[in-house]
Amino acid sequence: MAEAKAARVAAEVVRGAARVLEGAGGDYDLLLRRVGGSRFVLLGEASHGTHEFYRERAEVTKRLIAEKGFTAVAVEADWPDAYRVNRYVRGESEDEDARAALDGFKRFPVWMWRNTVVVEFVEWLRAYNEALPRGASKVGFYGLDLYSLYASIEAVLVYLDRVDPEAARRARHRYSCFEHFGEDTTSYGYAAAYGAAESCEPAVVEQLVELRRRASELANRDGRVARDEFFYAEQNARLVKNAEEYYRSMFGGRVNTWNMRDRHMAETLHALFAHLSAEGEEAKVAVWEHNSHLGDARATEMGQGGEWNVGQLVRERYQRDAFLVGFTTHRGAVTASSDWDEPGRRKRVRPALEGSYEALFHEAGVERFMIDLREEGSARELLRLPRLERAIGVIYRPETERLSHYFHAQLAEQFDAVLHFDETTAVEPLEPGAQWRAGEEPPETYPTGM
Questions:
Q1: What is the pTM of this model?
Q2: Of 220, 253, 286, the domain-final residue
Q3: What confidence tens digit (pLDDT) does each residue in 322-346 have?
């Protein structure tokens, strides 16, 4: 009886604080007011395969660009693949359309960036940039992740072949350390970690140091284009260094590799901010990543276990100049796999577990809403209490959901605002295939079958 009454009171508190979202784009006025003059707006997602998260994140970002002068979108994607999109949206590539510009995204999970919402957003960015006055700063699209070791090696070599063939020869010699492993980064990491092969660390560090030593010479050859191309090459060389360390450390424990990856993404974000700000007025960047990367780790059980993340590192560095937005859902469908490297399927998302933030938001009875978590009051106090929070990555296993997809968090400390969409749909890949269309839709009575 007492628990039921407490649940009703909690739902009423949430309902009173909820600001209804009635349509795309136009009803984010309050959110933009709360963002204020922040230079970093971190827009999360509770899964890597939910249509509404992609769509609404894009709508918010369009307004940040058009109304608040944001000049970059930085995403949870590999640097060279995203930079191909960057060249397209800035009118500097030969790709004929957004689909072609996204062709670089071939690594699992392809649907994360090769989906219908991202295509529309990339075309919008291209059109927006084309309509800007001559000389105005164009909006860019950049990747923050570190998985592209071999693609980044190739990008460094292509750049050096063009500007300094002798330096390219030295770089090839250094990077040849990886040749014994083809493009199997896991095999390299295992062999280097256990002494079965020589570590490539000295070679990749030496290459980055040489490139940085020549920064002034290479970056100032031909104005902005030369600076941009050098920055692109330098970030690829830094990625190779960090990725080598990451793969070599994979067998030493999850916390260490998680922290290395998020540190790399935060460092890349800072380097991007500094590069863009050097061209004039301080840059403003919208960041798209999973809630688990963008919500402050200090407010989660992962943080208590020693993990940090991009949200925490950005908050620590930029304080109130960063605004963190989480996204949640109660039930619906998601594009995800059952295991790594398997095709994406359209899967049913089970209703949220009792005791979770998502279940509490469902009980509030509002289909789509925002809560301002910086606003003092009973809702903020309620949402500071630890509850379960769901996280679906590229893999979703409903049969082990409590263990594999939930963690404890303090939502009001984790984010500055939360957007909730009670029932959501699966993001549509550009090449959905028969397996995606067939999906893995269990009956409503799953798992009992009754």
A1: 0.94
A2: 253
A3: 999 999 999 999 999 999 999 999 9
